[in-house]
Amino acid sequence: MSTNATRIRDLYSSGRFGLSIEIFPPKTAEGDELLRQTLRDLVPYRPSFVSCTYGAGGSTSKRTVEWCREIQEQHSLTATAHFTCVGSTREQLLEWLQFAWDEGLRNIMALRGDAPAGQAKFEAVQGGLQYANELVSLIREHFPEMGIGVAGYPEKHPEAKNLEVDFENLVRKVRAGADAIFTQLFFDNSSFYRFRDRLTELGIEIPVIPGIMPITEFDRIQRITAMCGAAIPPGLASRLESVKSDKRAQYEIGVDFAIKQCRELMSHGVSGIHFYVLNKSQAGREILNGLDLATA
Question: What is the average pLDDT across 185-208?
Fold first, then answer.
């Protein structure tokens, strides 16, 4: 299948600001239609690409490719498929990569993946891969023209012994052939600046793209940050706590905070912003309008 998808390595090379959004494959027909409406709402902002997650244990691996194909064919946007090591042998990983390539995908977000439910820690299956840098190497060896993004953690991966070990792991992924780093969500920009500066000190020159998740419900964001190790600044947490019975007020505080956070990041020369939109468009549209990123 032919494709006009732009590789990640080229998306930020021209100096153009790279807006990207992340979605996940819905589990119901109703969710599918809601996501299609979300995509229609966000298409006018012409994101550089839309990424689609892979699901726990690769549970949505085929659906991920189907959504990426729909994004490219129906909306003429570049799609990026998430891809993990979880539950697959090297041969199975190569089979999926060939399937994705044949369906027109030209970008992969290469991740180790979380441990399957019931496992205390991640363990590779026999004949599988243990680390994300191995997955990057596999992709680069067998699909050298594939664009590859990897994850970075400004506040440290929850499983890493310390920040320096986490940086060592990230550098391995970059050296294996990654084209750009996309960060986990964060709310304190100073943590991102320290993260970016340290990568520069380590000789990493590929784009480092901040990941932003708008706060629309305080309870939900608390659950998410507890899992990924991100911290909510005390002042912001206090404001949200004071309106914990008012979801509309939480939403307004979250959107306003995201606009200010993104403005500051853009003033500090980030190459782009990666939005975790949770398959909803309203907050994303308000934030993008607040940043004057509307194109239609």
Answer: 97
User: Is 22 considered catalytic here?
Assistant: yes
Q: What is the mean pLDDT of residues 6-30?
A: 91
Q: What is the mean pLDDT of residues 76-92?
A: 93
Which residues in the chain belong to E strands, given as ranges? 18-23, 49-52, 79-84, 107-111, 147-152, 180-185, 208-212, 272-276
Question: Any idea of the CA torsion for 90, 93, 99, 100, to the nearest 10 degrees?
Answer: -140
Name the percent of the chain lying above pLDDT 90. Answer: 81
Catalytic member of 22, 103, 134, 155: 22
Residue 220: other Cβ atoms inside 10 A: 13
Which spans in 43-178 are helix H? Answer: 61-75, 90-102, 132-142, 163-177
pLDDT attached to residue 296: 43
Long-range CB pairs of 192-195 (<8 Å, 24+ gap) are 192/154, 192/265, 193/268, 194/154, 195/152, 195/153, 195/154
- Rounded to 5 degrees, φ, ψ at 275 are -95, 125
What's the rounded Cα separation, in Å, for the pair 150 and 208? Answer: 10
The CATH number that domain 8-290 falls under is: 3.20.20.220
Q: Provide the residue ranges of all domains of the chain, joining segments of one domain with +.
A: 8-290
Whole-model pTM? Answer: 0.94
CA distances from 254 to 160, 216, 239 (A): 29, 6, 10
